[in-house]
Amino acid sequence: MTATLAVARNEGLGLAIAANDSAQPFFSEYAINSREVIRAEVCTINGRQVVRLSRWKLTPAGNKRTGCAFEFGAQRCKAVAGLLADIERELGGLADATT
What we know:
Blueprint lengths: L1 E3 L3 E3 L4 E3 L8 E6 L4 E10 L2 E12 L2 E12 L3 H14 L9
Antiparallel strand pairs: 1-4, 2-3, 4-5, 5-6, 6-7
């Protein structure tokens, strides 16, 4: 699932405010199970593009982030993808990672 959400975040003040259309972040989700998803989000924090990886619990009251988020500068995506590829190689490719 992919969608856009217009939110800008000022980490210094801890406030979320509406962003202009050019700053709309992109996110994609991968279902871990029927109750949780991993969300990858590209957003703007203090004028810089950031990628945020986080786990979300799907509840009747709405979606709720659980645990910590892993955030890094968008220019580092290739390096992070390389790290994940190294882990997958070390684990033998995990032929069926959905179980």
